[in-house]
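Quick illustration, no need to memorize.
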Amino acid sequence: LAQAISPGKNFFAGGFGGVCLVFAGHPLDTIKVRIQTMPVPGPGESPLYRGTFDCFKQTLAKEGFKGLYKGMAAPIIGVTPMFAVCFFGFGLGKKLQQKTPDDVLTYPQLFAAGMLSGVFTTAIMAPGERIKCLLQIQAAKGEVKYAGPMDCVKQLYKESGIRGIYRGTALTLMRDVPASGMYFMTYEWLKRLLTPEGKSPNELSVPSVLFAGGMAGIFNWAVAIPPDVLKSRFQTAPEGKYPNGFRDVLRELLREEGVASLYKGFTAVMLRAFPANAACFLGFEMAMKFLNWAAPGL
């Protein structure tokens, strides 16, 4: 029996999935941002971090286990509604394309529904990402400009109004819209692939859900990393450094560090993508089962 798509249930289950994602993935996110934004070493200097594991070791040594969870309050507060909105957008995108509740959507339709969810999340995501990046790099630099997320918002607003808070929105869209399409399409594709004949994808085993969710995260980031590197750079740059926006960032990166620099933080991202998204989709599916049981008519 096909369960009618309920964007409302998607909203709550997605929020729970988001909390699972942050707990599983935040330590590697901190490392990713630190690697992406570390200063270029001068002639004869060795780089601040030799790589993912070195950054991990240094962070643990200097700041303890807590250092890996730096800036986690902002993503928990931001990610929970964001994943709620993200899964809501996906549910809505699917529902809008169905003529009857039993319609099975094609992969291009699932991709389109995923892209819609990317548009939805950017509105919440852009300011949250900007604040998260600023807080993560100030800890690494050792100078404290912002006392915390709210203080960061206040100062940004004072310096350059709402535009300061939303800086990097276009880049967030460029990153999230195609990547979200890829994310949800891959997840649904793998779910169908792993479903035994005559069974429904809703009855998948926990390892299968973990695998499909983890792989969806990897496909999502394979598309998202280049714009993500540009976005981290742009959002943490001093005011006025890139007058023409991301075009300047791209030019500078290619000139100084070549094409490979667009894949900075790749190891950290991929190491994090699997467990974090596996946790997210498992949380989502479990919450969905609970909601369908608790409120079947919703």
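The chain has a mean pLDDT of 88.
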